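My main concern about presentation is that the manuscript never shows what a single data entry looks like. In essence, backbone conformation is discretised, so a fold becomes a row of integers matching the chain in length. An entry of this sort, consisting of the sequence and the corresponding backbone structure tokens, reads as follows:
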Amino acid sequence: MNEKRKLSNAASEFLAQNLPANFERFDAENLPRVRRESHEGFAPACKKILDETGASVEELSLNDVAVQRVVPSGGGRDDAAVLYHFGGGFVMGSAYEDSVITAQIATALNVSVYAAKYRLSPEHPFPAAQDDAFAVYRAMVDSFDNRRLAVMGESAGGNLSLSVLNRARGAALPMPSALAVLSPWVAIGDLDGSVSENDGRDPTLGRQYIEDASRFYVADQDYKNPQVSPLFADYDHAFPPTIVTTGTRDLLLSGSVMIAEKLQSAGVDTTLKVWDDLWHVFEFYPDIPEARESIGDIVAHLKTHMRL
């Protein structure tokens, strides 16, 4: 489904201010600084959305993995939850930075959102992030009825969401009731299609970032290993109902469309929403009306299948 409409003034202004994008190429030496600057840059937006929603942030550990729990105002329901995976190419990002999304989800569903604070590359290449995320998923299915559990992730977190569920299926663990992936990075190392075509058109992600992050995350692994790149995994109708969101400027548009088509072909209840003229994980910018609307679509999907 292609969401064609007139771009909001806020989205148009965002593009005008952020194109052409200026991406700093990172390496093992400057990465700590780039991570710190990213965290500091998004902190005001995180505080703003937490203040707006009244949600609170707690720290805990599940199966020896650090987890951030975003709790809706008033505490919310205790019989349901969302497991969330943040993005950042497996080299950057944090659970706190993604509070701009998780606080909205927690508030709209009135359930806590648990975000695994998985290890990052290149210090901890594949499969460290996935091992951490899988350990947290095990803890979640032990604590919640899978019919009241949903999984969600953006970009690299979308990769983790798909990969962890494939791994869980192989381990005969129950599937969650629903899945939502925003601009998922499903084909590590793939520099073709929209990764090249939208380079310079996407204000928040560049081809060089994908190339560097792929190398850091995968190390000596095969890019087409289905656990590395979930686009190459096999799916069946037992996979949970899924919503995939992306935009026509998204650097990862091609992969998002291909994974949605692959899920649909396997008999999975799949909704694909392609937003015209929007970019990689545009939902990360709550001042843009389209971002709030897309979050609303995702909430509706989760609420329906979690039966909340």
